[in-house]
């Protein structure tokens, strides 16, 4: 396994202690192609997010899976945020107070 792949997978395996105000946990609704995903937050809002280069061809995200998204400031563009972390161990994450 390459070093790049090991680093990306170890980052996605870690569980965050706290979430930044600009981050939120969302559910993957569908893949829109070219590393774009339609997601839904806890309020039922749907928007488009992008998978960053460090996770491309390294991690695969299934429909119905959860990810941590960093929301972007500007609202003029179609893409509302970037995926920061992929939730792998759901039991571990659900035990946190921010879930």
From TrEMBL:
<dbReference type="InterPro" id="IPR012340">
    <property type="entry name" value="NA-bd_OB-fold"/>
</dbReference>
<protein>
    <submittedName>
        <fullName>S1-like domain-containing protein</fullName>
    </submittedName>
</protein>
<dbReference type="GO" id="GO:0003743">
    <property type="term" value="F:translation initiation factor activity"/>
</dbReference>
<keyword id="KW-0694">RNA-binding</keyword>
<dbReference type="InterPro" id="IPR039294">
    <property type="entry name" value="EIF1AD"/>
</dbReference>
<dbReference type="Pfam" id="PF01176">
    <property type="entry name" value="eIF-1a"/>
</dbReference>
<comment type="similarity">
    <text>Belongs to the EIF1AD family.</text>
</comment>
<dbReference type="InterPro" id="IPR006196">
    <property type="entry name" value="RNA-binding_domain_S1_IF1"/>
</dbReference>
<dbReference type="GO" id="GO:0003723">
    <property type="term" value="F:RNA binding"/>
</dbReference>
<dbReference type="InterPro" id="IPR001253">
    <property type="entry name" value="TIF_eIF-1A"/>
</dbReference>
<feature type="domain" description="S1-like">
    <location>
        <begin position="24"/>
        <end position="85"/>
    </location>
</feature>
<dbReference type="GO" id="GO:0005634">
    <property type="term" value="C:nucleus"/>
</dbReference>
């Amino acid at each position: 396994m390459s070093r790049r792949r090991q680093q990306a997978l170890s980052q996605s395996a870690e569980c965050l202690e706290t979430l930044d105000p600009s981050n939120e946990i969302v559910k993957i609704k569908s893949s829109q192609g070219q590393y774009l995903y339609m997601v839904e937050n806890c309020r039922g809002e749907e928007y488009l997010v992008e998978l960053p280069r460090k996770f491309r061809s390294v991690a695969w995200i299934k429909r119905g899976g959860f990810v941590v998204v960093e929301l972007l400031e500007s609202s003029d563009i179609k893409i509302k945020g970037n995926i920061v972390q992929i939730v792998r161990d759901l039991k571990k994450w659900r035990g946190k107070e921010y879930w």
